[in-house]
Amino acid sequence: MVDVDQVLDEAGLKNPHVREFVAYWAQVTGADAIEVVSAEDDERLLQESLEAGELLPVSGGRYYSRSYFKDTARSEERTVVATSKESDKGVYNNWKPAEETVATLTERMRGASKGKTMYVIPYLMAPQGSPLEAYAAGVELTDSRPVVQQMIRMARVGVDYINELKDQSSFVRAVHVTGDLPNLGQGTPDDQRLFATVADQRTILHFGSSYGGNALLGKIAHGLRQACYDGKDSEVFLAEQFLLLGITDKQTGKKFHVVGGFPSASGKTNLSMTLAPDALGDRYYVEFYGDDIAWLWVGDDGRIWAFNPENGVFGVAKDTNEASNPGAVEAIKPGSGAIFTNVAYNPETQDVWWEGKTKNPPEDVTGWLDWKGNPIADRTPEQADEPWAHPNSRFTAPISMVPNAAEDYNNPAGVPVDAIIFGGRTRDREPLIRAITDIAEGVYDGLTLGAEATFAAEGVDGQLRYDPMSMRPFMAYSEGEYAAHWLHIIGRASQPPIFAHVNWFQRDPEDGHFLWPGYRENVRALLWLLQFKAGEVKGQETAVGVIPTQDELNLDGLDLPQEDLDRILSIDVERWRQEIEFREEHLKQFDGLPEEIWAAHRRVAEALERAAQA
Ligand code: GTP
Ligand code: SPV
Ligand code: MN
To answer: Residue 232: is it exposed, middle or buried by C-beta count within 10 angstroms (0-12/13-18/19+)?
Structure first.
């Protein structure tokens, strides 16, 4: 048995509640050793992982990790939110009773870390000193060293964060046990994986994966699911899968902040790291705050404030290149310390590649291994078209490496939010942007956010599904209460943000090409929104919001086919009337949806009927 007290004493870990938590799980998991880690341990841990072969070297002091081939994404079916009250059950949160969930996981974890070290990761999901600090502290226990390295990049990690807590017992207790990956029956009826947020105990127990969203517990499980629950429970804040960016107009000196909810793998990382298009770059500057999570609350000034609780970026590698996301390319360049997961790797040149990194894969395939570790050179003709990298392969880098990271991203006060946008991958119907000024209609729009399924979660690529506020995989309690909480928080603001719905993914129905070039050009739509909010442009009223007129949208330096522009700046009323029926079915699933939301739904439906008759 490990002498837990001695290890914790040596690490200077004083918080008595944390000590008790560590001792308990050390005994359950049967780990052979315990080690308390801080961000300063990164270099040593990386060396240890290189020596152990858990990480492979990428040129310029970067790292490569390959996961078990059945462990490459979040698994929504195996993810649950457990509490002791059944009224927390929603449509999407896979609610389970707390007691049996904790019992099941304790049994799965029993003895499962034998022969391994259990790392103790004290962390903070917030800039230090923030008004939401009481909800931000956590301790993750993990038996995977690469998980530690990822957490060091994604969260603020160090013993001081939990020793100095005002309420010493107020931290999230997070336990990650990898399990015997080749023998967990992934995807079979006997699947042993289980990922539980026991929300009313502020405890997270994840068993059976070492992939990001299943294993970096500060990020998704705490930063989203637990915080979603805490935000409602306290009535103080919202925790959302949102990007957070700033746009400065250098001409007027004004700065705006936008948060955006896009479902997984739908462009949050890209938009938050984007640069203004070349033609507008002299005037506008975009700053990065966050690409995946924002916590929002009402400030004393009556505005909505927000910060990104994370310290790093866990971005989709696919299609990341100098044109699509120069900021990301810079953040993972030699010297960045980036970690790549499940991309293609060449041990001879210590190089990495993924689809879309360059137009074509490296011509000389000598040494190249696909994400499963199989030599590309050995591929049969039938295998020739298989991707080299897993479509959900990712890179991990700290925000400090992001070239357009805002100077104040670490400011605990957060930033005031001017606009809340929602957007998904939608091949038809959704115009480039539609602004919504009414709060209930904005919340309704978020609740009816739809997107085609992506590879970030196990599911069918291309199939349309609703994803309320992009929180479907992270919803912690019932959708009806969630909607009410949104109305409550935003409704308390005397200077609320404007809402908008955006879509970069509309396609030509004939040949399938994207009607909008996307990426950096997306800034143009946001600029219109901010101008609209300021009353500088009027737009065009439609049944589903205000859309830009063609001359209002700044298209300097952009050459778009007129018919594409016509399509993305118009409303297909018939298609929308059909959508309203799907929405009605979607919303009916939610118990206790506030009347304001139904009223907003009816207003939109009636406006569409009027438009159809006109
Ligand atoms: P998570 O990290 O899973 O929550 O996803 P995310 O929303 O941060 O997704 P990300 O920004 O990494 O984008 C995922 C994919 O969408 C990448 O393959 C991008 O190349 C693609 N993408 C992003 N923006 C655009 C765009 O404006 N147009 C088009 N066509 N594709 C885009
Ligand atoms: C997502 O899937 O939405 C992500 C990646 O941001 S993960 O952290 O794995 O959930
Ligand atoms: Mn995400």
So the answer is: buried
Q: Is 522 labeled as ligand-binding? A: yes
254 marked among binding-site residues = no
d(CA 132, CA 404): 25
Phi first, then psi, for residue 287 (nearest 5°) are: -120, 140
Alpha-carbon Rg for the chain in angstroms: 24
Torsion of CA 110, 116, 117, 122, to 10 degrees: -50
Catalytic residues, which ones? Answer: 266
Separation of alpha carbons 396 and 560, rounded Å: 35
Residue in 154, 244, 269, 430 to alter for ligand 1 test, most ligand atoms within 8 A of Cβ: 269
**Distance of alpha carbon 523 from the chain centroid:** 20
What residues contact residue 475 under an 8 Å CB cut-off, 6+ apart?
Answer: 81, 90, 92, 93, 225, 228, 468, 482
Instruction: State the ligand closest to the CA atom of 151.
Output: 2
Name which residue sits closest to atom 10 of ligand 2, judged by CA.
213
Per-residue pLDDT, 553: 97
Per DSSP (E only), the strands in 429-518 are 433-436, 450-452, 464-466, 498-502
Q: What is the pLDDT of residue 365?
A: 97
Is the Cβ atom of 456 under 6 angstroms away from ligand 1? yes
Task: Summarize pLDDT for 23-50 with one digit per residue, the tens.
Answer: 999 999 999 999 999 999 999 999 999 9
| pLDDT at position 460 over 70 | no
Q: Residue 232 corresponds to which tokens in the numbers above?
A: 């409602």
Residue 19 is labelled as binding a ligand: no
- Cα 569 off chain centre by: 28
Determine the residue of 78, 271, 292, 455 to mutate for testing ligand 2's pocket, defined as the one with the most ligand atoms within 8 A of the Cβ atom.
292
Residue type, 263: P
Give 452's pLDDT tier (boundaries 50, 70, 90).
Answer: confident
Mean pLDDT of 565-585: 94
Ligand 2 cavity residues, CB under 6 Å: 74, 212-213, 219-220, 264, 292, 314, 456
Distance CA 542, CA 342 (A): 45
Residue 199 contacts residue 224 (beta carbons within 8 Å): no
- CA dist 592 and 598 (Å) reads 11
Which ligand gives the minimal distance to the CA of 74?
Answer: 2
Identify the H or E element spanning 106. Answer: helix 98-109
- Using pLDDT thresholds of 50, 70 and 90, give the confidence band for residue 456: low
Q: Is 267 annotated as a binding residue?
A: yes
Nearest ligand by distance to the CA of 241: 3
Query: Cβ(267) to ligand 1 under 6 A?
Result: yes
pTM, rounded to two decimals: 0.97
Which residues neighbour 388 within 8 Å (Cβ) at sequence distance 6 or greater?
343, 344, 353, 354, 355, 361, 368, 370, 371, 376
